[in-house]
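Run log, item B.
One chain of 451 residues. Sequence copied directly from the ordering sheet:
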Amino acid sequence: MTGPIGFRTIVETVIDAIAAKKLVPGQKLPPQRHLAQDIGVAVATVGRAYSALETQGFITSHVGRGTFISLHPRREKERPSASAGPIELGVYRAPVPQVRPGLAALLATVAATPNIESILDSAPTPGLARHREIISQWIGRSQIDADPDDIVLTNGGQHAVMAALSGLTESGARIATEELTDPRMKAVASFLDRNLVGVACDQDGMLPDDLDRLCRAQKISALYCTPRHHNPTNVTMPLERRADLVEVARRHNLTIIESDIYGSIAEDHVTALCQFAPERTYRVSSLARIAGAGMKVGWLIAPPGNAKNAHIGVAMSTGVASPFMTELATRMIVDGKMEEMLRWQQVENRHRLSQLRGFPILSGARGEPTSAHVWLNLPEPWRAEDLVEAAAREHNINIAPSHTFVVGRRTVPHAIRLVIGAPLDQDELLVACERLERLLAIGPRPSSIAG
């Protein structure tokens, strides 16, 4: 811990440690007096932190025995009437904080703008210059230097992907991507008559040797990949892997389309593919994972001086990004509201991930501290399709079928993606976790034998 230590700092440190598996269920915590001496705070401060952690269900105290990380964060309780339908773990959506008061003030400010007509009129293909300047500054937070002239604004991340594929490749082109990829990418490619070719992956992401093999065997026009918080596996590529992929792309003169849509709430600033290979990389991202799916503001960063290639894709798809929506988004960036929502998302997702750590099977899911989804390899004898069906039938839980992520006719993995950000709140997520943990532990029902 660094800086002034208050009880909230202790609480967040413990929650982060649970999410990172540095503290595991059943592990004993130091006595309050000992911890207070170690970190130089009053015993009352530690006591307040322990009380908050126990109230939230992360720790359990036993008189005479001590304080322990909870085996189960909370007991399942009655779900609120607002969430009486299925618990959603399949559709990717970001939880959002209460924004009504701030949003009302923001809309009033926009309405009072002297030149409001400019955001209700048509805009140039790449978007208004002042909007691109602000987005450039926002992108710079990730240590990526993007010239506003190289930025093309889009109506969300999916539009950015569509603009990249349609503007940079031709009908029938083969696009290399991870063997498991975003279903929306599959839908866009199919709509545009592009053919996805799956590249083998390991625990660090796409394998450069397999990409090289594919490029030698057939004509590959572009590489589409997600180096950070990959959907669905949640892999974040190590630096060396990124460098190796770029080397293969250069060897075969591949255009790179780098997606950071799911990594937009990450805290790390590992060198992006567009920094390794600025001359050939188009980077797409959006604000949807931060401000909610309704914030349809995305962008495509082109290599220096090559934005016109992206302009073609925008013009061929849904057209120019909405100036009104980008005005709202950029104002939220300027006044600090977007940063507040980003920090809220990071804390919220840490809390949600930490709740999984209290369950023996679910704790094995691959997650990143700030990611809204996890990837769980299923224990035998579970098959992905059987679990998805049983979860819906027996426990009213929706999970995305794993075959929707598979590129081509590759084998469907015995694993599932769980969108822990999708439930309405942390209580609903805990209900889903308890039900899934029981289901996973019991195992699938024996198949009926035909007579």
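Observations after the first pass:
- The longest helix spans residues 337-356.
- The two ends are 65 Å apart (CA to CA).
Flagged for discussion on Thursday.
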